[in-house]
Amino acid sequence: MSNTDEVHALAEAILEAARVAGLGVTVSYDDGVALRTIYANDAVSAIAGYSVDEMLGDLSMTLFVPEDRERMQSVLSRCRRGETANGTTEVYVARNDGARVPVELSFSMVQLGGEPAIVTFLRDIRERKQAEEALRRSEKRLRQLTDAAPDAIGVVREGKFVYVNVALTRLFARPIEELVEHHVDEFVHPDDRDSCDGSSGEFRVLHPDGRVINVELSSIPIDYEDQPAILGFARDTSERKQMHAHLAFADRMATLGMLAAGVAHEINNPLAYVALNVESLARMVQRGAETAVEEVAAARTGLARVATIVRDLRSFSTPVAEERWPVDVEAVLESAVNIAMHLIRGRASLKRGYGAAPPLKTDPARLGQVFLNLLFNAAQSFDEADETRNELTMVIESPDPCQVVVTVADNGPGIPKENLERIFEPFYTTKDSRTGLGLAICQTLVTSLGGRLEVESEVGKGTKFTVRLTTPDLSL
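Now predict its structure.
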């Protein structure tokens, strides 16, 4: 087979492959002014709605819709100058029946029998365009749905928003353009940035005007535009937190009201012997007695006891904004014991098991309220006062430098299973003297402090509450 025959065979094979692939092919001579089509395959005929014979001749430019012809002339001019037409061009073919068919087109200048010719390749992209339009409509509907959603919705990739809905712009009080240009951390309160890693939880958002709002986030990993990302749903919990704070304060005041008589007794006892010591001291001073120093020391001890009780009451009863700093968990627990001691004394023996624990970055007032409610619950669990039989045990442990675990346990009657399942429900109580808010608020407070509150109980053996709290390693 000669080279010419091989070339013809190769050309035939290429044209057949194009036909099978549905790729339209035309070959046109170019006289520098117009194109004269000398070959068109069946695929082009099907696209344009003309017969193959009708495709031949001077139809080349009129094959396209009027608004695309100028662009096609520009591409053709570049081919005539010997420039390579990079890639493909999307244009519309004007079918014989008046319909418009989107095609993907490319030109190539060749020499045919010593004359310049243009080979044109066309691919019908109607199905692709329909799919793109369906996708566009679907994305539009999705955008409408997400923009109508009351919760803020966003997609984060590599720390930046790649999608936000209208509610998220309201939540962050910033336009979409600003949200997508900056790292998410720039909108988060500095104290929360270390803990805000895109996983579900709570954090605070800074508004441009300096306001701070509380946000609750739920998130899941997804693939977005074929890349890993995080889909997040967020809502403003500021009002809910304020409501919880009011409820917590109301419960705190109710607890103090129930403790008032006992606390008054706790204060009156040391005040009474202070008063007696002062009177004795006055007489001793008149007599010049040497035991005056001992009486003064006793008076000071009594006053210190009063000061401790008053201090603990003040820290417990004063409504303050949530503030976190490194605190000694043992000191917070002992402050709660000081206030609750009159309830415990005579009812149960108090046992302590305090291990070494790191400072905990937390809110001492809120943590103190948790401990006081747990102590109050434990003391009230005993049906009869009996220090020889009833035990209330407090344990502090630190499994690692970033975790502190506090347990408050009693060996009282325990809680039936059907009650245990509802124990953290607001207003659920088995005692007429209680509001039913104490344990519900404890759970809310512990959760807000980044911890967990757990309960175990067995009828006839007692109940154990466990507070698990985490904190950054402050020794680093």
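The chain has three domains: 3-124, 137-236, 241-470.
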